[in-house]
Specification:
Blueprint (H helix, E strand, L loop, with lengths): L20 H6 L4 H15 L8 H14 L5 H12 L4 H15 L1 H14 L5 H12 L6 E2 L7 E2 L2 E7 L5 E6 L4 E2 L2 E4 L2 E2 L2 E8 L1 E5 L5 E3 L4 E4 L5 E5 L5 E7 L2 E2 L2 E4 L5 H7 L3
Antiparallel strand pairs: 1-3, 2-5, 3-4, 4-13, 6-15, 7-14, 8-11, 8-13, 9-10, 9-12
Length: 267
């Protein structure tokens, strides 16, 4: 089926996928074609994200276009969508290299010219972030500026729930960790962490550090000195939930030194 050159933005929510370019460009000349393009191709096929993700559909589409020798504005659009859907600079380079051997070297050259423009502002750091974002279902959120003084490195905060129980997704860039701290309470209190992506560390004062992976749960008692954060070479994210208690407060203490932190990777 033919494709339109400038369809609207695709999202991960099927109900949000809308296409109007077909009717806008060909509605008077070929209304049925325009309707099939807008309502069937994009309204139905692209919306079947329960069977194939938007990221995978973008990869299939880009591969199909390049293999067919279509390296015009249609490819540019779908490369842009592939980037929005999580395909990294490293991945698109590998995809087009693979396609070159099966579809033809000149076609890949043409596609690479467009891809380098689409991903021109990306680097290894943005590549790593895009890849990490694909690993978890929660957003990274905004820079955690309000608590930056209590962290070494960059962290991010995304509120998940404010009703019944407060839940936030906390994301750490590689090497980022918070200071030693204590969740005080005279009754109850403490914190619960649910690890959702990447690899991290948790350590209580006087005890060995614990390596954290997706699915791990950390029960932090009240009045226990501790810290948590990412490993040196991995992004890390966990959901953080404060446990109800009496006379609760947080006390921020000294940073985890580079010397102490670097020894963890040697253990």
């Amino acid at each position: 089926m033919a494709h339109s050159q400038n369809p609207t933005r695709l999202t991960d929510k099927p109900s949000d996928i809308r296409q109007t370019a077909g009717m806008a460009q060909l509605g008077d000349f070929a209304p049925k074609f325009a309707q099939l393009n807008d309502d069937v191709l994009f309204g139905e096929v692209w919306s079947r994200t329960d069977r194939l993700s938007l990221r995978d559909r973008s990869i299939v589409t880009v591969t199909s276009l390049v293999s067919s020798g279509i390296i015009d504005s249609s490819l540019t659009y779908h490369l842009q969508e592939a980037k929005k859907n999580g395909v990294t600079r490293t991945e698109i380079a590998e995809i087009l290299t693979q396609v070159a051997f099966y579809a033809g070297w000149p076609k890949a050259w043409g596609a690479f010219r467009q891809a380098t423009e689409v991903w021109k502002d990306d680097n290894d750091a943005t590549d790593a972030r895009r890849k990490f974002e694909q690993e978890m279902i929660f957003p990274i959120g905004s820079p955690n500026d309000a608590y930056a003084q209590y962290f070494i490195g960059q962290s991010y905060l995304a509120p998940i729930s404010s009703e019944q129980i407060g839940i936030a997704n906390v994301t750490f860039e590689p090497g980022c960790r918070n200071n030693w701290h204590i969740h005080h309470a005279t009754e109850g209190g403490g914190q619960l962490l649910v690890c959702v992506a990447g690899e991290g560390w948790y350590q209580e004062w006087g005890k060995p550090a614990r390596k954290l992976c997706p699915g791990d749960v950390v029960n932090i008692p009240a009045n226990v000195k501790h810290w948590h954060g990412a490993t040196a070479d991995s992004w890390f994210a966990h959901l953080a939930m404060s446990v109800d208690g009496k006379d609760t407060s947080n006390e921020w203490l000294e940073p985890v030194t580079d010397e102490a932190y670097s020894k963890l990777s040697e253990e």
